[in-house]
Specification:
Elements (H helix, E strand, L loop, with lengths): L1 H8 L4 H28 L10 E2 L4 E2 L6 H16 L1 H16 L1
C-alpha cells in the first residue's frame, strides 16, 4: 500500500517527501493568506485599501464587495486542498525514516 502511495506522490526517498511536503505547505499558506486578506477586507487582494494621491486629486479605494468576500472564501478552500498532500507526504517521510 505504501509503495502505491509513494509512486503516486512522485517521490522515492524521505528527502523527496519532505521537499514535496514543504512545497505544498508553502503553497497552502500562500493561498490561505491571500484568501483571508481578501475575505477580511472584501476588496481585491492586490488592491490598495487606502486613499492614494495622484497629481492633482485623491483616488478613493475600491468599495468592498460581496463578490470579493466570496472569492476570498474560495481562495481559502483552494489553499486547504494543498494541506492534505503536505500531511500525506510528511507522514510518508516519517514512516520511511522509521522503517
Amino acid at each position: 500500500m505504501s509503495y502505491v502511495a509513494m509512486t503516486l506522490a512522485g517521490a522515492e526517498t524521505p528527502g523527496e517527501h519532505l521537499q514535496l511536503a514543504a512545497f505544498t505547505a508553502a503553497v497552502a499558506v500562500l493561498f490561505i493568506g491571500l484568501g483571508r486578506r481578501q475575505w477580511r477586507t472584501a476588496r481585491h487582494a492586490l488592491a490598495h485599501s487606502e486613499t492614494m494621491r495622484t497629481a492633482d486629486r485623491l483616488v478613493p479605494p475600491p468599495a468592498p464587495s460581496r463578490r470579493h468576500r466570496t472569492a476570498g472564501v474560495l481562495w481559502i478552500g483552494f489553499g486547504c486542498v494543498f494541506l492534505l498532500p503536505a500531511v500525506v507526504n510528511l507522514v510518508l517521510a516519517i514512516r520511511e525514516l522509521i522503517e
